[in-house]
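Duplicate of #3305? Posting structure anyway:
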């Protein structure tokens, strides 16, 4: 197992996971990043909705199923999570955290994948 992403929330973890990470790519940077990285392999399709590039409904469901099959979640409570988050990201270098973590090669790969994801909606219907 490998830590891929580390984040904090001001809401309950259940709300963040259920309403963002396991639901809509529009609301979750993690989902958009995973979709971008898996796009070619999984043949995800996107569409432009209210100015946002999102996965089609069927592919949102497929991404959720992929996440449930391949990812694990753990958490810890912390009264002041920001310094702890920053320290853990610096120490563990989760590759999906762009800020303060990933080596330059990871950052460039993620930026390239995200750019391709955003551009993918432009090619829909052409």
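Output from current build:
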């Amino acid at each position: 197992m490998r830590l891929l992403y580390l984040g904090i929330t001001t809401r309950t973890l259940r709300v963040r996971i259920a309403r963002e990470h396991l639901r809509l790519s529009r609301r979750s940077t993690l989902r958009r990043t995973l979709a971008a990285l898996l796009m070619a392999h999984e043949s995800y399709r996107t569409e432009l909705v209210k100015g946002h590039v999102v996965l089609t409904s069927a592919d949102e469901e497929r991404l959720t199923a992929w996440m449930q099959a391949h990812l694990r979640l753990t958490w810890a409570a912390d009264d002041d999570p920001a310094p702890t988050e920053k320290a853990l990201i610096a120490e563990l270098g989760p590759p999906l955290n762009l800020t303060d973590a990933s080596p330059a090669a990871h950052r460039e790969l993620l930026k390239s994948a995200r750019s391709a994801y955003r551009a993918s909606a432009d090619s829909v219907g052409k």
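Confirmed duplicate; merging threads. The chain is about 55% helix and 5% strand. The first strand starts at residue 46 and ends at 49.
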